[in-house]
Design brief:
9 strands; two-stranded antiparallel sheet; 7-stranded mixed sheet; about 35% helix; Rossmann fold
Amino acid sequence: MSPTRGTGSIPVHTTPFVEIDRSRWAQLAPNMQSPLTNAEIVQLRGLGDRMDMNEVAEVYLPLSRLLSLYAANAKQLHDSTQSFLGESSARTPFVIGVAGSVAVGKSTVSRLLRELMARWPDTPRVELITTDGFLYPNAELERRGIMHRKGFPEAYDRRALLRFITEVKSGADEVRAPFYSHLHYDIVPDASVVVRRPDVLIVEGLNVLQPAVAGHLTIADLFDFSIYVDARTDDIAHWFEERFMALQRGAFSNPNSYFNVFADLTEEQAREKARFFWREVNEPNLQANIRPTRPRAKLVLRKERNHEVSKVLLRKI
């Protein structure tokens, strides 16, 4: 019997995504000019990323155009719904979730999309928030005995994050999120990030596509669009190690850095420490919690070892 046939069976080749290779994807916006200079792109990319003008033109300009179409259609649907109900209310922000592993480049993708979408006439106000601010403070993680699981779903104040997105989505004039310091590796007391009625809000984080638990609402339910940044596990492990080494030579040398204890390690010791963190923390989180959410995204960016996107998977409508 054919593997694609049978009573009640689903063909093995069936997928909810359209797979588009890079060359075809680039042709979807052939006449668009990048509004960003090479210097701006260098400032936007994270440690280890190799984002350049060509990558922006072939991958992210078409993506920003697609997102602008979704945002415009969401506005049209909002207006039509309000007309149907005989009501009038302000348009709510278009919310985009960006998920993926540590070191996969999702922060660079998020920053780049913020800059590109702000250039579209219908979305001049674009804000970016990371879920790091909703991690429990280190003292609370220690109290709960899960400091070693920082970055896992249980390490976040998910109720506070859901309240934040709900308030933004409801059109609140001003919403505040806790501020997270990567230097101190902790929440900064009495500091906050303020979001004021954006046209678009980008929410970037490891676990933003987590499904609901016991039927409760989750932040992914409030997204209008979602992106998963994907790559092979071995490639991400390599990027994580190289990023750790770059930080060890740079930011870790700051005496105020939480990771200053690693500043004087030899190269061999530093690499072994990076591999330990990957093996014991980041890879288990990727396999158990992050990668299983990939099918929930509306679009997947598949990266190769050189960090270039080779394919785009877009959910069928």
